[in-house]
Amino acid sequence: MFTVLLSGGSGKRLWPLSNDLRSKQYIKLLPYEYDSGVRCSMVQRVWAQLSDAGMTSSSVICASSGQLEMIHSQLGNVPIAIEPDRRDTFPAIALSCAYLVDAMGAKENDVVCIMPVDPFVESSYYQSIKEIDDVLQESSADIALLGAKPTYPSEKYGYIVPGTHYQGYFSVEKFLEKPQLEIAQDLINQGAFWNCGVFCFRIKILIEKLLHYGLALNYEELYANYDKLPKISFDYEVLEKTTNIVVVPYEGVWKDLGTWNTLTEEMVGYTFGKAHISNACKNTHVINELNIPIVTLGVNDMVVVASFDGILVADKRESSNIKDVIQDIKERPMYEERRWGTIKTLDCSERPNATTLTKKVTIFAGMSSSYHYHELYDEIWAVLRGKAELIIDGDHRQMEEGSSIQISKGQKHAVKAIEEFEYIEIHLGETSGEVDMNRITFDWQEIASLGK
């Protein structure tokens, strides 16, 4: 069995920590299952659980190109099926299956299990998934789903209504998406399951679908012709058109941590960062990424979140509505996490044909940037701490605490941290940032050979 973790969404319901460059699944606020004292992200927790279940060697993450740096930073060198753009779950799943065939040797009769990258579950969840291979064989079903046993009536989840009970699985009678509470309770009384968003099927099902669009299950071809695939969910394109479906029950913990209300329920403690909560506060959480303190006095059922992108103060019961409120906020992301370090934007001043951008850049020890240049702006660096090797147009020099340098337009440069390296970077020119980033290579050995 192969596994695909879908990681395409931005997760803006966890604003201001989540943005277009740091989706909700990369925010480090959860405890590791085996060490509650260590904070990890959703994707780190899921990947660790997959590893414990012996499933990582046959797993791939499907993500947009903008998430690659974050994934490599948190998970290392893992298999990634890169989406050229976001086109909903059916194209993403098709592209991932093509990657499994081309890069990982999957065959058309192999079973692939599609699952979200961000469920909060117990280890038994993965054991239930591993059993689905046998269920598909025994039942001759086209698709098998995983259904969690509900613990309370909820309007936030979809429901799977089971039919005939067999050994280890049920036939599926029907689906209901986010019903009202009264209907949800009736469904639970009937033995309905929460829909975990897990789809398992044989890869040949995708081959048949792609033939309909004149495409083959080939990763490079699908990547190049991604816009020819319909922008539609797997539910509508495949699931609703399939009648032979079964569901495998899962009775452990399952949560969708898509809102601050549900995420804070799984945090270790009530604070993160510089935060002080008075004893008069009840069920209040404060998450602070800024270097200034936050103090709460006498407030209940609140979540306060501060980051470089903004500040949220919300009643937990209302926190799920944040996506509608912030949809008109078009600010640039102020915090980025890359495979080599982090970037914090401190200030940005924009005028016609003139931009000044100030950033604090941290490069982890032993990590390096790409060899690149800018055509529209100069850079000024001032080192705050650490040591690094800087290469400019083949010229090697060492940078350390207190040193500074100007890098002019057109100068090719790269830097590698000898020890953790932190510096202020100021852009002066017509534009700034990724808009004018011309990368040549990421290979440090190739870069280091320049000028020698």
Largest sheet: 6 strands, antiparallel
List the strand order in the largest sheet: 20-21-22-29-24-27
Distance between the termini: 49 Å
Rg to the nearest angstrom? 24 Å
Q: Low-confidence spans: pLDDT under 50, at least 5 residues? A: none
What's the average pLDDT?
A: 89
Strand tally is: 30
Instruction: Give the helix proportion (percent range).
Output: 10-25%
Specify the overall morphology: globular
Number of helices: 12
Strand content: 35-45%
Derived structural class: alpha+beta
Write the layout of secondary structure elements.
Layout: E1 2-6, E2 30-32, E3 35-40, H1 42-52, E4 59-64, H2 68-75, E5 80-83, H3 89-104, E6 111-116, E7 119-121, H4 124-130, H5 132-139, E8 143-148, E9 158-166, E10 169-177, H6 181-189, E11 193-202, H7 204-212, H8 219-224, H9 234-237, E12 245-250, E13 254-256, H10 260-264, E14 271-272, E15 275-277, E16 285-288, E17 294-296, E18 302-307, E19 310-315, H11 322-326, E20 335-337, E21 341-351, E22 354-363, E23 371-373, E24 377-385, E25 387-392, E26 395-400, E27 404-407, E28 413-417, E29 421-429, E30 438-441, H12 444-448
Parallel strand pairs: 1-4, 1-6, 4-5, 8-12, 14-16, 15-17, 16-18
Antiparallel strand pairs: 2-3, 6-11, 7-13, 8-11, 9-10, 9-11, 10-12, 18-19, 20-21, 21-22, 22-29, 23-30, 24-27, 24-29, 25-26, 25-28
